[in-house]
């Protein structure tokens, strides 16, 4: 059975790296001894090694060791043999570019669909959708395709932000940009707020966390989905 956690972010305000997710991770990764980490999206100014070290510290309380995929001579084999996989945040364009460059997109999808537990945060969550086209990131590289793993039948907009009441900013809101996307695309989009995540068990997808999520469908009025609700898009 597929087991996936799709989190909007790794860190919420006034909290440490993955701290808010620790209770969920403790249950999700129960029995796992080693985690394969994919650092390809790495945040600005951090190396793969440093990123992996950060993740390793976060998983110490769960007694799980972490090894970065860049440490393996054969990354495809590393995915196929992994007990569990975590893809971290950063730039989604670079993440997708590296996955295609290393011929790993389909391999990763197959492993997760076969039952390897998968955790994604931010960019690592964006690639769970049908495409990466609703990322907020700068296109710092041009990946061969925007198509991602398609583990869920819609796209993710991680770090979803609501319009700020009374703001004088004249730029587009996140909602406006997603509605612009729907002028040319039909794929539904889930705006996932900070501190929220999706829990996937087989084909069942449930919203978890303290906040609602914003649902966007082409030609329809956006609406809120309550935490604890099944996601049917």
From TrEMBL:
Q: Which Gene3D superfamilies match?
A: 3.40.50.880
Assigned keywords, A-Z: Hydrolase, Protease, Serine protease
Q: Which domain of life is it from?
A: Bacteria
Pfam families, alphabetically? Answer: Peptidase_S51 (PF03575)
GO BP terms: proteolysis
Q: Which SUPFAM superfamilies has this protein been placed in?
A: Class I glutamine amidotransferase-like
Q: What are the recorded GO MF terms, alphabetically?
A: serine-type peptidase activity
InterPro entries linked = Class_I_gatase-like, Peptidase_S51
Checking NCBIfam families in the record gives: PRK05282.1
The record's similarity note reads: Belongs to the peptidase S51 family.
The protein's name is Dipeptidase E
| Organism lineage | Bacteria, Pseudomonadati, Bacteroidota, Flavobacteriia, Flavobacteriales
């Amino acid at each position: 059975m597929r087991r996936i956690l799709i989190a909007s972010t790794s860190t919420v305000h006034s909290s440490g790296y993955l701290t808010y997710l620790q209770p969920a991770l403790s249950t999700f990764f129960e029995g796992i001894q080693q985690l394969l980490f994919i650092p390809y999206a790495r945040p600005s100014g951090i190396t793969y090694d440093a990123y992996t070290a950060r993740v390793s510290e976060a998983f110490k309380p769960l007694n799980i060791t972490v090894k970065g995929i860049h440490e393996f001579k054969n990354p495809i084999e590393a995915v196929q043999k992994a007990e569990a996989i975590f893809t971290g945040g950063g730039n989604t364009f670079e993440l997708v570019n590296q996955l295609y460059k290393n011929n790993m997109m389909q391999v990763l999808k197959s492993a997760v669909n076969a039952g390897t537990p998968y955790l994604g945060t931010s960019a690592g969550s964006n690639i769970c959708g049908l495409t990466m086209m609703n990322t907020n990131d700068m296109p710092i590289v041009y990946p061969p395709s925007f198509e991602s793993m398609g583990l869920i039948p819609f796209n993710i907009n991680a770090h979803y932000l609501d319009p700020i009441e009374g703001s004088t900013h004249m730029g587009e809101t996140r909602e406006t940009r997603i509605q612009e996307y729907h002028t040319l695309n039909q794929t539904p989009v889930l705006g996932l707020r900070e501190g929220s995540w999706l829990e996937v068990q087989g084909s069942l997808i449930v919203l978890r966390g303290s906040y609602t999520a914003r649902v966007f469908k082409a030609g329809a009025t956006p609406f809120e989905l309550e935490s604890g609700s099944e996601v049917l898009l």
